[in-house]
Specification:
Distance between the termini: 24 Å
Number of strands: 0
Strand content: under 5%
Helix content: over 70%
Largest sheet: none
Order of helices and strands: HHHHHHHHHHHH
Radius of gyration: 19 Å
Shape: globular
Structural class: mainly alpha
Number of domains: 1
Length: about 300
């Protein structure tokens, strides 16, 4: 299996995770985004299994910074799940995917000393254009109306970009596993903070109580959640595997992230025939054409940005 096939499979798995997340949230099998974020952060403790393979103690200030990075990451995921709960997956995912690299480039320029050239700026403009194009509702009665969940998508992109930039900085000073363990412990601390919000605490405790007497629906929801997390983890691993096979393919592996948008769109349309109340994808030619054009623009943006990386 060559690197291109592995990359395609990786983004397909990540797209499946997004679609399962949308199903669990919109079908109310997981009744609130905070529940999904809570379990996503809690399962991050599985990183502790890597303790014997690279973990070591660091300074108190470094611990605080890595905890903070993990907290920002989990709140970015909470915003992302909130966006999925409110909007179409094929709209939410590209907007988050466009905002993240834009913010990362500016943060890297300010804090990591990186500089943007003309080609990279052109790529950023293409990403902004594509993200706004796919977000605009041409069928809306109002003159200008963004899709439901747009602002949550932007917030998710900003928070995830901040966490990614801080993680990148951590990796320059420490090994991957140690950074991974400390930041995942920070993410777990972040979900514990959820309990300080009375409404969220009630929702989380209610979901935990269902483990005592799990019904058939709860069992199925638990299996689907584990499946979604497994697909996401597997997709990430395959993506890194594809990148490691040959240095010449690094640019294309990163640029092909647009495949995930295509898969999410296609899967969303497919499942909307089966569960139209959950996957609210519009299938008229105008909506389909709009999304295809937007995906093409976003693809150009990613290719321009990643060409020299």
């Amino acid at each position: 299996m060559n690197w291109l096939t592995i990359t395609a499979v990786a983004y397909f798995l990540l797209a499946l995770e997004v679609v399962l997340n949308k199903f669990l949230l919109s079908s109310k099998r997981i009744s609130h985004p905070v529940i999904y974020a809570f379990y996503a952060g809690a399962t991050g403790l599985f990183a502790l299994v890597f303790l014997p393979f690279g973990f070591h103690w660091i300074g108190f200030s470094d611990i605080l910074l890595r905890f903070l990075g993990g907290i920002v990451f989990i709140y970015g995921m909470l915003a992302f799940f909130s966006a999925l709960d409110k909007g179409e997956a094929s709209r939410v995912t590209p907007v988050v995917g466009a905002v993240v690299p834009i913010i990362i480039f500016f943060l890297s320029m300010i804090f990591l000393g990186e500089r943007l050239n003309f080609q990279e700026i052109s790529g950023l403009l293409a990403l902004v254009t594509g993200g706004l194009w796919i977000s605009y509702d041409f069928g809306a009665k109002k003159k200008f109306q963004l899709f439901s969940g747009f602002y949550w998508s932007v917030l998710a992109g900003i928070l995830l970009a901040v966490s990614a930039t801080t993680f990148k900085n951590f990796y320059t000073h420490d090994n991957f596993l140690n950074v991974y363990i400390w930041t995942r412990m920070g993410a777990f601390l972040g979900v514990l903070i959820f309990f300080l919000v009375p409404g969220w605490r009630k929702i989380i405790l209610s979901s935990l109580s269902k483990f005592k007497k799990p019904g058939s629906d709860n069992k199925r929801s638990g299996i689907l959640f584990i499946l979604a997390r497994s697909l996401g983890g597997g997709g990430s691993i395959l993506k890194e595997k594809a990148t490691s096979l040959t240095l010449a393919s690094v640019t294309l592996v990163n640029a092909l992230v647009s495949l995930e948008y295509v898969f999410v769109f296609a899967l969303g349309v497919l499942f909307s025939f089966w569960l139209p109340g959950v996957f609210m994808e519009k299938k008229d030619w105008k909506s389909v054409g709009q999304k295809i054009i937007a995906i093409c623009i976003i693809t150009v943006g990613f290719m321009l940005i990643s060409e020299n990386k």
